[in-house]
From TrEMBL, chain A:
Record-given protein name: Sulfate/thiosulfate import ATP-binding protein CysA
GO cellular component: ATP-binding cassette (ABC) transporter complex
Lineage: Bacteria, Pseudomonadati, Pseudomonadota, Alphaproteobacteria, Rhodobacterales
Native organism: Nereida ignava
Gene: cysA
Domain of life of the native organism: Bacteria
Gene Ontology MF, one: ATP binding
SMART domains hit by this protein: AAA (SM00382)
Pfam families assigned to the protein according to its UniProt record, in alphabetical order: ABC_tran, TOBE_2
From TrEMBL, chain B:
UniProt membrane topology term: Multi-pass membrane protein
Name of the gene encoding the protein in the UniProt record: potH_2
Superkingdom to which the source organism belongs: Bacteria
Residues covered by the ABC transmembrane type-1 domain: 66-272
Gene3D superfamilies: MetI-like (1.10.3720.10)
PANTHER family named in the record: ABC TRANSPORTER PERMEASE PROTEIN, INNER MEMBRANE ABC TRANSPORTER PERMEASE PROTEIN YDCU-RELATED-RELATED
Signal peptide: none
Protein's UniProt name: Putrescine transport system permease protein PotH
Keywords for the protein's UniProt record, in alphabetical order: Cell membrane, Membrane, Transmembrane, Transmembrane helix, Transport
CDD domains in UniProt: TM_PBP2
Length: 354, 285
């Protein structure tokens, strides 16, 4: 039995279903991300776990205990809000100490634990500042310290890094991971940023339109997406319509436009499918040698890599090449594209959704 | 000057001209008038002196009037805060539909002339007014309670006029706060009472302070309400100025009193403001 379990969780606002039949589990001490596009019901899910919204159906079980009917203030969860929600009229120490005060922790003990929490987030020197006089990253740390100081069973993070600028966000990703490991607290994070979810999580739950799409480790989610949606939502992907002719122990035979391709074995019936190919798995070869020919339409240099848009008979293909010290192709050049059959992902055709 | 700033000046020009003509010029003329001499038979003289100021500052009669004015303003402010804060909080918690209706009700009084509203109070408060008649009819009192021509009556009517300003100021402050702070406090174990007193109220304080500033300065310089409800018996500074101008015809003395009121209100406002800045400048944006 996992530490946190969601069973068939559903939330309806009137006729609108924000979360539908959502079930997943979070192991003790692990870091799980709830990933999905804006408006897919992530915050609503978090609010139900936190106790701010009541589920329409389904249940939430934390450490073997059904949370139904337990008010938010008695759940003892640490929550970091997207806006941080710091108390503007209290100093950093007062902010962090608020939860302990509510738990009637003695003054001396409070002082000790506030100091330890501020130490954990590297803010010991700013204890008597007001939030207003702090940077976004510092406020973020205060919010974390305030949530962690009560030694919560579960830490809930709602888009914790989305209000930071790009560089700070990368730094805070590492910080967040370190703090979570040091505190050893089971964490459920909500984010719409796939790179954040990949970098931080032990496990990722991908959601779309209120429904679970895939629940796996970051590596598996990226390597073996189970739907077109997941393949396109995490990282870049070239997705093409194709037809599956046959599949067996020696692999699959596919028809894509006028091309005949080989792919790995799949558990799908012959018929229309979608194939996904990661840009970094495509090699540039001689025009005659590859599986597909194309013209380099655009080349973007990104420092450690080149991103190329190549016009082919199957449409535009995105190719990513590492910068190893020389340009592999110029704009306008005709190139061949090649890949290994096992790099192809064969996905069921998505039933058209809005 | 860059085109940007010159355009800004150009666009502000109409307002600035209006401001100068309608406010600064009369103010300046009043200021100059306050130094002229006055003689009951000869009228306004041309020699300048500080005699008018000396007369006001040397007469306990005027101290009493200034004291009463500021006491009325202070009590009005306190009552407005006591009524306005809960009212603003209720407004803040309402659903959008009811809130828009209630805001209209709250601001409603501002749409009616102060004179009309105050005359309404006069009808209610008079010795033969609605309240006294009703109380006497049901036999609770034998003789009418004097409410007209008292400071209490003035405070009552001023509160009625000023509460909307307090409500709007406090409401604005409540709306500026992050609604997630309440959820944060709750998740940390706070009960609704604690959330109200420890989280919501403190964040509304800047609104109470700015509302108080508005209410106090408007009450201290209010004219229509004390003129109608206080009459000749309960004089405040503004009605005294009016009497000097229109009854005694001693314009220079009236001007001097007006200038003293202006300076006194300004001093109160500025020191209040700097107090607020010092206390909350670091805390709130
Ligand atoms: N209180 C509510 N009443 C009605 N609709 C809501 C409410 N809260 C959220 N929703 C709707 O539910 C959907 C999911 O919202 P949310 O969980 O905030 O999405 P996310 O956090 O994934 O961006 C949105 O379409 C939103 O408009
Ligand atoms: Mg959200």
């Amino acid at each position: 039995m996992a530490f946190l379990e969601l069973h068939g969780l559903t939330k309806r606002f009137g006729a609108f279903t924000a979360v539908e039949e959502l079930s997943f589990a979070v192991e003790r001490g692990s870091f799980v991300s709830l990933l999905g596009p804006s408006g897919c019901g992530k915050t609503t899910t978090l609010q139900m776990v936190a106790g701010f919204e009541a589920p329409t159906e389904g249940k939430i079980v934390l450490d073997g205990k059904n949370l139904a009917g337990i008010p938010a203030r008695e759940r003892g969860l640490g929550i970091v809000f997207q806006t941080y929600a710091l108390f503007a009229h209290m100093t950093v120490e007062e902010n962090v100490g608020f939860g302990l005060e509510m738990r009637k922790v003695s003054k001396a003990e409070r002082k000790r634990r506030i100091a330890a929490a501020l130490d954990l987030v590297h803010l010991s020197h700013l204890g008597d500042r007001y939030p207003r006089a702090m940077s976004g990253g510092q406020r973020q740390r205060v919010a974390l310290a305030r949530a962690l100081v009560i030694e919560p069973q579960l830490l809930l993070l709602d888009e914790p890094l989305s209000n930071l600028d790009a560089k700070l966000r990368e730094e805070m990703q590492l910080e967040l991971r370190r703090i979570q490991r040091e505190a050893g607290v089971t964490t459920l994070m909500v984010t719409h940023d796939q790179s954040e979810a990949l970098a931080l999580s032990d496990s990722i739950v991908v959601m779309d339109q209120g429904r679970l799409r895939q629940d796996a480790t970051p590596f598996d989610i990226y390597e073996t997406p189970q739907s077109s949606f997941v393949s396109r939502f995490l990282g870049k992907s070239n997705n093409l319509s194709a037809r599956l002719d046959s599949t067996g122990s020696e692999g699959s035979a596919l028809v894509c436009g006028s091309l005949r391709l080989h792919g790995p074995l799949v558990d799908l019936r012959p018929g229309p499918v979608e194939i996904a190919l990661r840009p970094e798995r495509i090699a540039l070869v001689d025009p005659e040698a590859g599986q597909l020919r194309g013209t380099v339409a655009e080349r973007v240099f990104m420092g450690n890599q080149w991103l190329l848009r190549i016009e082919t008979e199957l449409g535009d293909m995105l190719v990513m090449r590492y910068n190893t010290g020389r340009a592999e192709a110029e704009e306008g050049e005709v190139v061949g594209l090649d890949w290994k059959p096992e790099d192809i992902r064969i996905l069921p055709v998505e039933e058209t959704s809005a | 000057m860059t085109t940007q700033t010159s355009r800004a000046w150009l666009l502000s020009a109409p307002a600035l001209v209006l401001f100068a003509v309608l406010l600064l010029v009369p103010l300046l003329m009043t200021f100059m008038l306050s130094f002229n001499s006055f003689d009951f038979y000869g009228g306004i003289g041309t020699d300048l002196s500080l005699a008018n100021y000396a007369e006001v500052l040397g007469d306990s009669y005027f101290y009493e009037i200034f004291g009463r004015t500021f006491l009325i303003a202070l009590i009005t402010t306190a009552i407005c805060a006591a009524i306005g804060v809960p009212q603003a909080y209720i407004l803040y918690r309402m659903s959008p539909f009811w809130r828009s209706i209630t805001v209209l009700i709250v601001i409603g009084p501002l749409l009616i002339s102060v004179v009309v509203r105050t005359l309404g109070w006069a009808i209610l408060l008079g010795n033969k007014g609605v309240i006294n008649t009703a109380l006497m009819d049901i036999g609770l009192i034998e003789r009418p309670i004097r409410m007209m021509y008292t400071s209490g009556g003035i405070v009552l009517a001023l509160v009625h006029v000023m509460v909307p300003f307090m409500v709007l100021a406090v409401w604005a402050a409540l709306q500026r706060q992050d609604p997630a702070t309440e959820a944060a406090a709750e998740s940390l174990g706070a009960r609704p009472r604690t959330i109200f007193f420890r989280i919501i109220l403190p964040q509304a304080i800047p609104g109470v302070l700015s509302g108080s500033l508005i209410v106090f300065s408007l009450s201290a310089s209010a004219f229509a309400t004390p003129a109608i409800l206080g009459g000749r018996r309960v004089k405040v500074v503004s009605t005294t100025v009016y009497d000097e101008f229109l009854n005694t015809l001693n314009w220079p003395l009236g001007a001097a009193i007006a200038m003293l009121l202006l300076v006194a209100v300004l001093i109160v406002m500025l020191s209040w403001n700097s107090l607020v800045e010092r206390r909350y400048g670091e805390v709130f944006e």
